[in-house]
Every structure is written in C-alpha cells, then in structure tokens.
C-alpha cells in the first residue's frame, strides 16, 4: 500500500489529460491540510461545438494519508477561510493550468499556472504538491521558485534540512541519495544495487527514487529473481536480466502505458499500484481488479479501506467476547472429553460385580483378589478385592462404581453435545464477524450475543426512540447462468434466508464440518446447471472458515430437506441426506449485485 513515484506518474498523466488548459474557478480548504480545487474547462470539438465541463481535485497532505485524486463530491468548508486558502484565492482565482509535471520520479507534482495580477499583467506561478508521508506539503511559489506561502510552514527549528517559509527558495532535498530511475544507466544501476549488503528487494527501493517495496518485489517477480536474498548472489547475466526488466518498466512509465490495479483479499483491498501486480496471480486468495483511472482506483481503495478499518475497529469488542467464550468452551470440551474417557471402565466394573456374585461363594475372606473365568468372553480374569470386605460387599462396591460412572457417562454425553453446539455457534458468530461489511451487520451480531447471554444489553438502547437502524440484506450474486444466489451475513439472516425466504424446491449449500453462511439458490422451478452448482458451492466455501484452504468440501441439498430442531441456536440446522462436492473457494468470477 504505497503512493509511490509510479502512481504519482500515472496521476500526473491523468491530470494533464483531464485538467491542462482548464481554469481554477473555486479554491476551498475544507481541512487544515487539504485543498479542494474546482476546475472549469472549455474544449472545441472537431464539429466546432464548445463543450464545457467542471472537475474537482482533492489534494490532501494529511501525514497519515497524503492523497490527490479527481472527484465529483463537494465538501463543506469552514466559515472563515484559512490564511493559505486566502493567499491562493488572491493569486490564483481564475488562473489557467498550463500543465502538471512530476519532478523525476519523485512523489512531487508541479502545477504550472498563469494568471493576471492586479495591474492586468500576465504572471506565472507554481504550485508544488509533495506527497511524502509526514513530510507532505503544498507549496505556492513564484515563477523563480521563491516561496510565497505553504499549507504547512516549516522553520529551521523543525527541520535542519529545508525551511519552507515565505521568501525562501524552493528545492527538494536529496537526503537519501537515490538515483533517478528515468535516467539511470546499466553501470550505475548495477553499482548501486550491488553495493548494498541488504536483501535484493530492499536494495532496489532504497537505491531508486519512486520505487516502493511492492514494486521492487514485482520487478523481482517479473525477472524470476524473487528467491534471491542479495545482489551478491546474482550472476552477471542475471543482473543484466534484472536491468532489462527494469528498463521495460521504465519505458512503460515514459510512454504513459499504465495499467492501474487494486489487489483484494476477498472483498478487502490490500494493495494497489500503477501497474498490474503479477506477483499475486498465483495466490488464489487474492484477486486483481483493473482500473482505467488511477483517481477512481485511489478513491475506491481508500474508501473501502476506511470502511474495513472502521468495521474492524467497531467489531473489536465483539471479537474479544466471542474469542474469550470460544476459548473457555474449548477448554471445557477437552475436560469433558477426558472425563468421558474415564467412564469407559464402567462396563468392567459391572462384569466384576457379576462375576463376584457368581463365584464369590468360594471365597473364605481376607483374599486380595479372585481369579476366575469371565463367562462373557471365556477368558480368565483377576479381580482386585478389598480383603476387609466380604465377596458380596466387594460385588456391591463394583456395582456402585458402575452405577456412578454410568450416570456420569449419561450426563457428560449430554453436556458434551451441548458444549459442541455452543462451540459451533460461537464459530459461526466468529465467521459472521469475519464477513461483516456494514455497521448493521455488527448490530445483528451484537443482538445475537446479547440474547445468548455473552454480552450485556445496553441500557441506553431503550431510550433511543425514533432511531431505527437499517436492516442489512443478504449478499446477492448472479450465477453465470442467470440464477440468483443469496448468502446470509449472520445467523439470524441464515435462518431467515433458509426458512422464510427460500422455497422447498430451492437449493441450499453449506461448508461441511465448519462454520459458514447458508447459501440459497433460487431455482424458480428450473433444473440448475452444473456451473451454477459449482458457483454456489464456491460462495459457501468463501463465506466460511474454510475460505483460506486450497479446497473445501460443500454439502448441498434441496431446502425442503433442511430442518431446524426446536430450541436450537440461531443458524443451526440438521439434514440427513445430501450431496457433496469439493471446490476451490474462489468467487472472483461471480457477479455480485448491489441491492
């Protein structure tokens, strides 16, 4: 996850294409470290008609999330504009964008602007946008790079490398001594990479400007050198092969031949780049989503990432409660299993009692054991005795042990099944937390845990009159053959989907022997094609605890054969005849419908 020099190069190309020649009609500063520029354009088409358009550009230099992208959204601005915003409005209102240039492969963009001053003379200005993590900044300069102002002023007390203050000269400090990938030749490339006694991927991104760790790994993957630990292991031919792959990537940057893509693990975004990341292709857990716009990619990525982060944070307490209860139940289950194993000797005690009742009349008293034939098996057996008791008292002692162990066995058998069902229920709750995408999903899970006694009900919930939270809907997919497929997000929804939404002739799918969602395929009275069965099974595998496995076994059956026992926990069902198939839990090719 890096806004590296290659992503910036793609952004510069896209902004030039979309905004060069436009005029800045509005300047707003909705946040202390964010600008929102409205740019209007007029273009004359081949038929002589003038086409007018308006675009918005967000520039954020937030230290934790520096970002620049085109958008259609409008943000609220403060009643009183900050000083930097007022300076820009004074100089750049109605300024024309001559072009947007990236400096080398640095994470720096330079907007070249022209405008009329108070005297009506044509002037030129520059707006530098530095997207460098905590050092990100927006710096407004004269044509000769003398700083007019910046959104973040940096004095000598803050930085000994560069002051960013009005009147100072703008420059990019070269503190890391990296080479420019757009101009470096083979000799310098080899010298810089080979000189560093670090892993090969680190040698790349610490030697070349604009290279992120993910693009360094991608370059090594394309050169089939990802298994090498350092440059010292490379032969001359392998180093040349690495340089040629690097040169191919460089030519794509120069030719603006970008292919932006987002990498997802399931539905969660995990990475993005200005080029397709082939290093993820062999891992079935990841899916590459291509984009034709880097701005759209960045907007989607950070919006989705924020959603997943927010849901993960809000589900933390529910996860803690669920995991604690699961751990306790598993320990209890192990203890009950051990105790149940100890009851296996109960039948032996019953046999001892029967044999003593039969052969005990031969004992005179004081014996420590009785050796006799076990008429149940025909083999000889030795029975330990309490020499202070008679044969009948010893028989009674063994019958009492048998009766006690039998009662324990019967009680533990019931308790073990109850504990097993509780574990299965908690695992299904854990799975629901894993697939939660909305706050409504968490509300349903919290309600379930509350009604089952795992969390206390919030007292404030009674006083929230008039505040009705939306009810989440099942995941909705369309099979390649046009059949609608639905996936429950939690146990309540699983019950609703299976026993109220589905008809008896619809098909029901579930991962075998593990927690997972119920999947319903609406048959509409038709016979399902094999491909639809496979896609529905893939959904059942993906939305289960088996999704990280190479293959998963899925049970499927018509819904009319699925039953829910009275008093059972949410999501629990039974079925006695079913079909099974083994599938790869991959849903990348299945179309999801946003309801």
How are the SSEs placed, and which strands pair?
Blueprint lengths: L4 H15 L3 E9 L2 E11 L5 E13 L2 E7 L11 H10 L3 E7 L5 E9 L5 E9 L6 E6 L4 E4 L35 H9 L5 H6 L7 H10 L13 H19 L6 E5 L2 E6 L12 E5 L3 H21 L1 H27 L3 H14 L9 E6 L4 E6 L6 H45 L3 H13 L23 E4 L5 E4 L3 H11 L5 E5 L7 E3 L8 H13 L9 E7 L20 E5 L7 E2 L3
Helix pairs in contact: 8-10, 9-10
Descriptive notes:
The protein is α+β, with helices and mostly antiparallel strands and 595 residues long. Helix content is 36%, strand content 22%. The protein contains 13 helices and 21 strands. It has helices at residues 5-19, 83-92, 186-194, 200-205, 213-222, 236-254, 294-314, 316-342, 346-359, 391-435, 439-451, 491-501, 530-542; strands spanning 23-31, 34-44, 50-62, 65-71, 96-102, 108-116, 122-130, 137-142, 147-150, 261-265, 268-273, 286-290, 369-374, 379-384, 475-478, 484-487, 507-511, 519-521, 552-558, 579-583, 591-592. The strands form 5 sheets. The chain has a 7-stranded antiparallel beta sheet with strand order 20-19-17-18-16-15-21, with helices on both faces. Strand 3 (50-62) and strand 4 form a beta hairpin. Helix 8 runs antiparallel to helix 10 (391-435) and helix 9 (346-359) runs antiparallel to helix 10 (391-435). The chain is elongated and about 130 Å long. Residues 459-469 have low confidence and may be disordered.
**Could you tell me the radius of gyration in angstroms?**
35 Å
Number of strands: 21
Q: How big a fraction of the residues is strand?
A: 15-25%
Mean pLDDT: 89
In terms of structural class, how would the helical and strand content be classed?
A: alpha+beta
pLDDT below 50 for ≥5 consecutive residues: which ranges?
459-469
Distance between the termini: 30 Å
Shape, per Cα inertia axes: elongated
Tally of alpha and pi helices: 13
Helix content: 25-40%
Largest beta-sheet details: 7 strands, antiparallel
* Oligomeric composition of the shown chains: single chain
In spatial order, strands of the major sheet run 20-19-17-18-16-15-21
